[in-house]
């Protein structure tokens, strides 16, 4: 069996794969290069950089499994894989803590103007008055998407003595109650929150979830955090709201187009940006790589995969 690793993954996952299969690591391939290469492999392992399009899948005549070493699968044409009898697996639990901690870190960065103060002081200017912050204690955190990551954020926010409310149409009232989180409508969440953090999957129904209409409902003191997927927020509408001081600030880890080296969001001083770092910890990457490596081997052995996302 042959496995192509098209994006960098942890050595721990590579070692597991090499114990059972022949492994080639070819990262940074262009779409046409993947198409010309994939035909020799039974398994393809990617993170978020490589786009596994219908054309790539069609060229993978031997493919049995596509493994995403992480959570989101919007870079994989799952429908085409299913149609061609190819299993798609991921590692849904791997980056939960890392993504939750990054969201909390960005919340603090917004509350205390940390990146801006760092930049000004390093430019040789001692300026305290400009960077008056706020405490998070006693503030209302609105969580959009109360799945694994959203729930982990809720627990940490409660430890900071924040009031936590959430909107998620797929979560039961009992689940939220056990987390000591109040489920509310999206409209109420937007109106009442001092901080809003988004942890929803990107689907056709959630694309553009936060746009001009939604931003018209928020407090002018609100701060918005997105460590989920870029397409969930209308970036132009957000930049405009911050520029017009209808939103106090935002912290964005994900973008509608990635890699993002230019963005309207970069133009606003009160928008903090990071290059999709939510899952970028050594711990998260090790777990993700090991999880998908074990599943690839299970598929090769004819056993069920633990985290299959389709049923070909």
UniProtKB/TrEMBL annotation:
Gene3D superfamilies (UniProt xref): NAD(P)-binding Rossmann-like Domain
GO process terms (BP): L-serine biosynthetic process
Name the UniProt record assigns to this protein: D-3-phosphoglycerate dehydrogenase
Keywords: Amino-acid biosynthesis, NAD, Oxidoreductase
D-isomer specific 2-hydroxyacid dehydrogenase catalytic domain boundaries: 3-310
GO molecular function, one term: NAD binding
InterPro entries, alphabetized: D-2-hydroxyacid_DH, D-isomer_2_OHA_DH_cat_dom, D-isomer_DH_CS, D-isomer_DH_CS1, D-isomer_DH_NAD-bd, NAD(P)-bd_dom_sf, PGDH
